[in-house]
Amino acid sequence: MKDTKNTSAETVLTAENYYDNYGSFYDLNLTRGRMKKLSFPDNLLDFLRKPKSINFLVLGSATTKNINAVTQIGFDLRTKANIQNDIVNIIDINDISVALHEEYVNYLDKESSWGDCKTPREASLPTFPYPQFNVEKMDMCRLKYENNSIEVVISDYTLNFLSSFDDLRKVFQETSRVLTPKGIFICVFKFSENPKDNPEIETREANLKVYKFHLKQYLSIASKIKMGLVPITPIEKGGDTICVFQKL
């Protein structure tokens, strides 16, 4: 992301303040709350819970709150007994976000005794079991993972930072490629209720641009690459929804 200097009183999104501004809007704790209201089919939960270990992929993360939140999503989809065997891959295109996540993960890796925490930040960490984390700078339009290697992909509004339909299609295609058969893509996104080809653009604080395509465009892309919409709940209204797609 290219830095933009602030030439007026308006705060402009830069690489330095991206982490604070994006993370203040969205985090996976909110997504987890919405997921807990869904009734996942038994056969889908069986698929996720039977293996001793599975791989998660988080597409973009601008707050380290997501490290704890994705662990708890793992508890919901898996079990606490198995979560320590799982691998959670977190990617982001922003160097600062990646560095902060790596710092947090390093705290988790080195602390074997919670009673001997040496810093306030370490002492504040929850004491539940964690999976293994891999944090990497990566473009979600060009994933570096092998085909059929990930069971669960999660996107928490990151689709709304794609300004072109072509990039949106690439993310769905790449997600489908890396997902195992029956793997799922959990995505929360804002959508436009105006049926037009170009995205509706919403400008948030710090000049943060949110791009919203019509709902049918998201569903059409998924259908064309054989990712079925899991019939968990009706699509929410109000231009904001959570969808769970499954690779057929």
TrEMBL record:
GO molecular function terms attached to this record: S-adenosylmethionine-dependent methyltransferase activity
Alphabetized Pfam families for the sequence: Methyltransf_11
Residue stretches making up the Methyltransferase type domain: 133-187
SUPFAM superfamilies attached to this UniProt entry: S-adenosyl-L-methionine-dependent methyltransferases
Source organism, top-level taxon: Bacteria
InterPro entries in alphabetical order: Methyltransf_11, SAM-dependent_MTases_sf
The protein's name: Methyltransferase type 11 domain-containing protein
Source species of the chain: Mesoflavibacter zeaxanthinifaciens subsp. sabulilitoris
